[in-house]
Amino acid sequence: MVKRTGPSNYQVKEFLLEIESKNKSKFWNRIAQDLKKSTRQRRIVNVYKIDQFAQEGEIIVVPGKVLSLGNLNKKVDVAAMHFSDEARKKIIGAKGRVLSLKELFEKNPEGKNARILG
Fold first, then answer.
1. Residue 64 belongs to domain spanning
2. What's the chain's Rg over C-alpha atoms?
3. Arithmetic mean of pLDDT over the chain
């Protein structure tokens, strides 16, 4: 049986400690649960999925990676652990904002008006 060690990236470890110490929201508990998974099991979302499921002006949270396949025609704020360079350009080109999960946690500690996608 393989021993689970959790994330090995120190930034992710620090962020998880911050969530666990300051958080009382079910939303951020769910994000922490996803971030504790191995990198192979984390969510990967393409830009076309964000365009398909997001509503104008919404905050989309991806506890994983955002890739650039497809186009984005809506103004949405996207928070994720990692963005490809092209995905970042497409989100900004659609007048949206690119945020890290830590930035979103500081701005929105209750997780209101945010949707997890992936």
1. 10-116
2. 14
3. 90
Instruction: Confirm if 33 and 9 have CB atoms less than 8 A apart.
Output: no
Per-residue b or e along 33-45, where b marks 16 or more CB atoms closer than 10 Å to that residue's CB: ebbbeeeeebbeb
Does this model's pTM top 0.85?
Answer: yes
- Specify if 1 maps to a domain: no
Distance CA 96, CA 81 (A): 17
Would residue 58 count as lying in a domain? Answer: yes
Q: What is the CATH number of the domain that holds 78?
A: 3.100.10.10
Total domains in the fold of the chain:
1
Q: Which stretches within the chain are classed as H helix?
A: 10-22, 26-35, 47-53, 85-93, 101-107
Beta bridge partners of residue 62, listed in sequence order: 80
pLDDT digits (tens, 9 = 90+) for 64-113: 999 999 999 999 999 999 999 999 999 999 999 999 999 999 999 888 88
